[in-house]
Amino acid sequence: xxxxxxxxxxxxxxxxxxxxxxxxxxxxxxxxxxxxxxxxxxxxxxxxxxxxxxxxxxxxxxxxxxxxxxxxxxxxxxxxxxxxxxxxxxxxxxxxxxxxxxxxxxxxxxxxxxxxxxxxxxxxxxxxxxxxxxxxxxxxxxxxxxxxxxxxxxxxxxxxxxxxxxxxxxxxxxxxxxxxxxxxxxxxxxxxxxxxxxxxxxxxxxxxxxxxxxxxxxxxxxxxxxxxxxxxxxxxxxxxxxxxxxxxxxxxxxxxxxxxxxxxxxxxxxxxxxxxxxxxxxxxxxxxxxxxxxxxxxxxxxxxxxxxxxxxxxxxxxxxxxxxxxxxxxxxxxxxxxxxxxxxxxxxxxxxxxxxxxxxxxxxxxxxxxxxxxxxxxxxxxxxxxxxxxxxxxxxxxxxxxxxxxxxxxxxxxxxxxxx
Length: 420
Known about the structure:
The protein is of the alpha/beta class. The protein has helices spanning 6-10, 35-46, 79-86, 88-99, 101-111, 130-145, 155-162, 181-194, 263-266, 307-321, 366-383, 401-418, and strands spanning 22-31, 51-54, 70-71, 123-126, 150-153, 170-173, 177-178, 198-200, 205-210, 215-219, 222-231, 249-258, 275-278, 284-288, 294-299, 330-340, 347-352, 355-359. Strands 1, 2, 8, 9, 10, 11, 17 and 18 form an eight-stranded mixed beta sheet that branches. An eight-stranded mixed beta sheet has the order 5-6-4-13-14-15-12-16, with helices on both faces. Helix 2 packs parallel to helix 11 (366-383), helix 3 packs across helix 4 (88-99) and helix 5 (101-111) packs across helix 11 (366-383). It is globular, with a radius of gyration of 21 Å.
């Protein structure tokens, strides 16, 4: 089995860059080459801004290139929960903006001819228990009240769509779909370059400073001076002189992908191309790629003590969900990091004059990351903070982040040690 991301091995999109070298100036400097950063670079360049994007590793190296690839509408928290946290008006605004996030993602894929295995046949939130089905009924009530094209499926209908008899029902959301997540990120980067943005991989930022009028961003190889700054590293912020770390709870999510299934087996599993996840406290995800591989995912890190337990669980889960594929060898195994916030809502943080950090997608990064990146570009090209889906704030504090991280990691390990 290859210890590496399936997405890295199969991405058809590629982007050519060079490290930052020398002194450069720009209207906007972006730190981070994931969905948020690449979307901001693309939309800012399309609006005429000169843009420099700096990525410490390669485009999509972080969570943007390691996730499940589910393009969902909204967030983990349902609309009424968002309204309770933000207030009715602000909550409704965020829910409305992110309800159309898949529209933006798939329109960008079409407009820029991004080759990322996109399928827009919806996603399936599957009930692992009667209590889980009750949760889906409540989500259905809230989403359908907003006019969302969601459908509550019976156990039989769910079995027909998934190819598994393990669920009590499911919530199908027709707005959603699946993509090859790394290829999509690279496609955004390529589109940004075509629009005029300059992207630099292998350009780790060492320090950031502001004189009140402009930002100075330094790497070992060069310097960018810009009026506007976006910090878009999310869970992969690893220390940066001049900027306090955005506070979130770092969680790991792993995935394992089988070898491509034979045609007589693959057509029985997720026939419509939907991706899915369940309602369990330690959530599991499942989907196929274009080649017919089944990809199983859950919370946890594969390089820690619990890695052996997580791998064993993935085999048991595959056999339970799809017995006909249960003994297929796993060809790829990988994991990435999620930036979770206490209320599961993303944040926009002011870090200085004309400077913002965006983070905390809490496992819903594809649609929201694309939307928030565009919003930052709009803010910097005349709309101001009114363009933001959430109110920008001067500070954000998460308490006991280390303790919570260990708690979630231990919970996932224990669940995978005894469950399937």
